[in-house]
Amino acid sequence: MNDESTPSGLPEGYEMSADPDRIDVGRVHHWLSTDAYWALGRPRDKQESAIRGSLNFGVYEAGSGEQVAYARVVTDRTTFAWLCDVYVDRSVRGKGLGTTLVAAVREHLRPYGLRRIMLATHDAHGVYAKLGFAPLAEPDQWMALVFE
After folding, report:
1. CA 59 to chain CA mean position, Å
2. Which domains does the chain have, with CATH numbers?
3. Cα 129 to Cα 17, 44, 125, distances in angstroms
């Protein structure tokens, strides 16, 4: 996916973009800080900083340009990527936008030759499994440092 292409499989009436200038930062912050279990209460300045330091993807209504979905990738563009902050507005869920968005992100990252793309989810394992994601084969090799 280049900056303005729309992948196949996106429902009619929607378009996708990796153009960071199209991201509705206020809307993304509202979604994540009020309705995403992993980011509840995230301050706006932290969200803005995260957006600046990441690859960002949006799904938009074709006519109005209103953003309806978002995904962010933290990556070195060489060996590793972390897919995070995947969110679809409640008003358009059930149309396949999330699955199509994640598939487009995967294809956008494919040319980098990454060794792995990681993600964490509490309740969407089935969605990601359809796109090739699987539980860690050797989770005992992974560790995390968590700042509370």
Report:
1. 10
2. 14-141 (3.40.630.30)
3. 23, 31, 6
